[in-house]
Amino acid sequence: MRAELKLSSLAILVTAFIGGVNCTAQAATDPAILEQAIARQEAQLQELKQQLSELAAQQKQQQVQQADYQTKTNTAVDSVETAADKLSKFSFQSYGTAVYTSDEYFDNVQDTTPERRNRFDLERVVTEFGYQFTDAWSMEVEIEYEHGGTGVALEYDGFDEFGEFETEVEAGGEVMIEKAELRYRPSKAFGIKFGNIHVPIGLTSMLHKPNQYLTVMRHRSEAAMIPAVWNENGIGIYGEMADFHYQAQIISGLNSEYFRTYDWAASGHQKRFEHVNGDDLAFAGRLDYGNFKKGSAVGVAYYYGNTSGNRHKSNKINVDGTVSIVSVAAAYVEGPWILRGQYLYGTLSDSDAITQANKTTPGLRPGNFAQLGSQSQAFFVEAGIDLNHFTSLPLTVFANIDYSNPLMEVETGTATKRFENTWTSVGINYFPIPQIVIKAEAGLQQVAVASIPDTNFFALGVGYQFSL
Questions:
Q1: Which tens digit of pLDDT belongs to each residue from 21-59?
Q2: Interacting residues of 65 by C-beta distance below 8 A, sequence separation 6+
Q3: Sequential DSSP letters for 211-273
Q4: Alpha-carbon distances, residue 443 vs 134, 446, 458 (angstroms)
Q5: At a CB cut-off of 8 Å and minimum separation 6, what does 63 contact?
Q6: HSE-up of residue 261 (Cα within 13 Å, Cβ side)
Q7: Three-class secondary structure of residue 320 per DSSP
Q8: 8 Å CB contact between 463 and 95
Q9: What does the pLDDT average to over 415-431?
Q10: Which ranges of the sequence are coiled-coil (predicted)?
């Protein structure tokens, strides 16, 4: 169009020049010819104006289209940048373990002849979702699928007299929220979190991924005294100053209706109920020097809370049932050397009254309760050598000892030694890649009763962990 317009313009100029010459030559003798020439030039100028007007309109339309295209491009870029920005604030992590165990079991506390059982267990698969709303506000949700999860199925039984639909449990595991917390942390020195939060009593609450402990399964000693990866509803403050890390929490307390001889207060965790009773709250605090998740550290923790107010049958007891727990832990991880240990000591007030109340509460099983310990203790020590520092083999060899005595003392009478257990073992951790660990462990379990023989156990496990 522009080329055609230029040619038209040139033609007009040439015509005008020729016409001008002719007009000059003939104007004096023929005014009619001059008038015709002027008319032709005016017509050509009018045509040129029309073409210029059309060209201007086309240019304006092109500018509008270009601006619209630029706006759409900017919008698309902004949308991509917004999506990328949101995605960068989202985090996902997962870890899991599967184990094979060969253990010798006793059918009951009176049995002195063990029976060996070989078992497979998809121990757990955990997914963790996080989102960073702003520099200060964030959230995290952790969902755990234990022992293959749980589920029910509706089936039709045609062999019943009239035919019957039956609902059957397909898997006996659990699906649980292990953490669901909101966090506000304006600085490293101070933060606040609330929701369903981890209780910082026991190293398992911090070191629960398969590459964070050496044994095939998490430490038996801790599980025989307090809830493993203990989580409660509540609010807490936390922070880091220099190499010190602190936590202080007000959380939902335990329920003494489910305290048991063999695991002391561990079964009192209210995870099994639809609603968590909060008539008795508890305090939990921790102070660490160093970082257990990253390597070397030492730390102390303390828990204190009443438990009777959270009983569903509160009329069965009128005492506090106070649980107090002290934890001391240390870790040395330097070069090829790995050394970790923990000691737990706990007291339970009114243990005789709780024992008697549990015996007479309908619906609790077993009906004949053994006595609860007024004092309990447990410890573990694990030591390993990472051979990858000396060879190209990504292998860690370790030795471990776990000890638990949930009946360290009782209020009246003599505490039985049947539940005092010691586990000693040796094993290996093999890392084919950093995100995967294959473990093997063999050991001996000893009960502090002379008539009960020592038993042997063997375990194989595989675990993974990754983060996006």
A1: 454 445 445 788 888 888 888 888 888 888 888 888 888
A2: none
A3: GG-SSSSS-HHHHTTS-TT-EEEEEEEEEEETTEEEEEEEEE---GGG-BTTTBTGGG-GGGS
A4: 49, 10, 6
A5: none
A6: 20
A7: coil
A8: yes
A9: 95
A10: 31-65
